[in-house]
Amino acid sequence: xxxxxxxxxxxxxxxxxxxxxxxxxxxxxxxxxxxxxxxxxxxxxxxxxxxxxxxxxxxxxxxxxxxxxxxxxxxxxxxxxxxxxxxxxxxxxxxxxxxxxxxxxxxxxxxxxxxxxxxxxxxxxxxxxxxxxxxxxxxxxxxxxxxxxxxxxxxxxxxxxxxxxx
Length: 166
Description:
Blueprint: E1 3-5, H1 8-18, E2 23-29, E3 35-41, E4 50-56, H2 60-67, E5 70-77, E6 82-93, H3 96-102, E7 120-134, H4 139-152, E8 160-165
Parallel strand pairs: 1-8
Antiparallel strand pairs: 2-3, 2-5, 4-7, 5-6, 6-7, 7-8
């Protein structure tokens, strides 16, 4: 059974794990009920329970979110063995002041007209629950786990897995 928590410390750990990953796979539901995913870059510098992404206002993901706001974000940093899955409710935000606040020059790659491009919108994902897997990335620890499994016939407990409610 996976440990569950709603502590501020565990909520902060979720942010600590995802803040440097920046790219998440955003999963939405299509009109026919099938799942649809695409990579999205987060744009905020801090976390208050809401994750922010820039997008084109007239896009399939916006249509899907407006029909069904339930989304899943999947983050992965395999060299560090950090994995986070976040479930939440997404909304489309068309607030020019917020777009300007979150804008960075790196966003110009996707939005060459700059932050005043009328086609830019924001996706806000209000986090409801996150699950993370934080395993040791050291080759020595992994080798130890392998040896222990071979000798004992039992898989080792490698790292931490927790569900965090927001």
